[in-house]
């Protein structure tokens, strides 16, 4: 068995969560899987997996080696596809990553439609609220919210989203008005771990270049979008999320946007992919299929988040109509 085959077995064991499962996927016996891993460890001279009769755990060296293996395998697959001139016949497994909420609510339905349209393509969707190193972690493409810093990636802009501060009419009717950013420090805050658990930063005031920050002691901290929305709707406090997270609650008048004029900075939204991956048929097919759908969906949700039904007032008593 050559080293590339052993690498593929090693990665399959990690992806499937066990040696037996990897054997079933690859059509190899448990003994053959064990021999391949032992051969790979002998070649590199370190232990990659700490194995027991029931489970295994990556060693520190194994974690680093796995990243390299994924990159090597992805490069080989890409080379094979290009050499075989299969651009017109997408196939194989598409690895894609996205933030949890956007992936579950927006990207997954698009992936369902994509798999219906391309039955020869399978999808592995990794929902992670952290920046993913696409090449090191073996990803074909990612949905990324935020400013891009890696110039080696190909980026396709989908639009922009905004952070908004929101509360329920029930909460606002029972607590002091919020007329400026500093007022937030006097209120019950439901903090999302990704948006600041003890302070929020806002764009500079008109005529200033210094960003404004408000510090607070949160009443409740949670690392889930849904976990922040539910208590906010129930009137337990004020939260800050991306506008599309609460588009449905705004349209149903269960939440209201606060400090609208103070939280206007747009955050770019992209699909990103490593250089060269767009030449792979499955990636090209997904991009062509998904980009117009994702643009339309995020545009609609952003509009819903900005426009509230007539008659709903903000904490400044101002009525916002459709714009």
From TrEMBL:
<keyword id="KW-0805">Transcription regulation</keyword>
<keyword id="KW-0238">DNA-binding</keyword>
<keyword id="KW-0804">Transcription</keyword>
<dbReference type="InterPro" id="IPR036388">
    <property type="entry name" value="WH-like_DNA-bd_sf"/>
</dbReference>
<dbReference type="InterPro" id="IPR058163">
    <property type="entry name" value="LysR-type_TF_proteobact-type"/>
</dbReference>
<dbReference type="InterPro" id="IPR005119">
    <property type="entry name" value="LysR_subst-bd"/>
</dbReference>
<dbReference type="Pfam" id="PF03466">
    <property type="entry name" value="LysR_substrate"/>
</dbReference>
<comment type="similarity">
    <text>Belongs to the LysR transcriptional regulatory family.</text>
</comment>
<dbReference type="Pfam" id="PF00126">
    <property type="entry name" value="HTH_1"/>
</dbReference>
<dbReference type="GO" id="GO:0006351">
    <property type="term" value="P:DNA-templated transcription"/>
</dbReference>
<dbReference type="GO" id="GO:0043565">
    <property type="term" value="F:sequence-specific DNA binding"/>
</dbReference>
<comment type="function">
    <text>NodD regulates the expression of the nodABCFE genes which encode other nodulation proteins. NodD is also a negative regulator of its own expression. Binds flavonoids as inducers.</text>
</comment>
<feature type="domain" description="HTH lysR-type">
    <location>
        <begin position="1"/>
        <end position="59"/>
    </location>
</feature>
<dbReference type="InterPro" id="IPR036390">
    <property type="entry name" value="WH_DNA-bd_sf"/>
</dbReference>
<dbReference type="GO" id="GO:0003700">
    <property type="term" value="F:DNA-binding transcription factor activity"/>
</dbReference>
<protein>
    <submittedName>
        <fullName>LysR family transcriptional regulator</fullName>
    </submittedName>
</protein>
<dbReference type="InterPro" id="IPR000847">
    <property type="entry name" value="LysR_HTH_N"/>
</dbReference>
